[in-house]
Amino acid sequence: MVTPVRVVIALCLLAPFVAMLWVGSYAKVDPVFIGIPFFYWYQMLWVPLSAALTVTAYKLWQRDRRGRVAAAPASSGASPKGGASE
């Protein structure tokens, strides 16, 4: 099921791939930052950004799953772990 939260999760996970695969957008020298050409510092900037976006996607996924488990009817017979209740 596609929900707005899942769309945000997908965008968080896809953004680093698109940013790194679109080489033409950062294949240049200027602007130089502390003596480092743009080509290098732009890629290094995406390392912590990718980690932050991945953590954000994970937290959103956890929140989405908790909301779905809480919204599931108690009489469905499913446990929160996804297995059948005894």
Description:
With 86 residues, this protein is an all-alpha fold. The protein has one domain. It is 60% helix and 0% strand. It contains 2 helices and no strands. The protein has helices at 4-21, 38-71. The radius of gyration is 20 Å and the shape is elongated. The two termini are 28 Å apart. The model has no long low-confidence stretch (mean pLDDT 86).
Considering the chains and any ligands shown, give keywords for the structure:
86 residues; mainly alpha; 2 helices; 60% helix; membrane; transmembrane; transmembrane helix
Head-to-tail CA distance between termini: 28 Å
User: Number of helical runs?
Assistant: 2
Percent of residues in helices comes to: 55-70%
Return the average pLDDT rounded to an integer.
Answer: 86
Instruction: Tell me the number of structural domains.
Output: 1
Short structural summary:
Pfam families: DUF3311. With 86 residues, this protein is an all-alpha fold.
List the helices and strands and how they pair.
Elements: H1 4-21, H2 38-71
Helix pairs in contact: 1-2
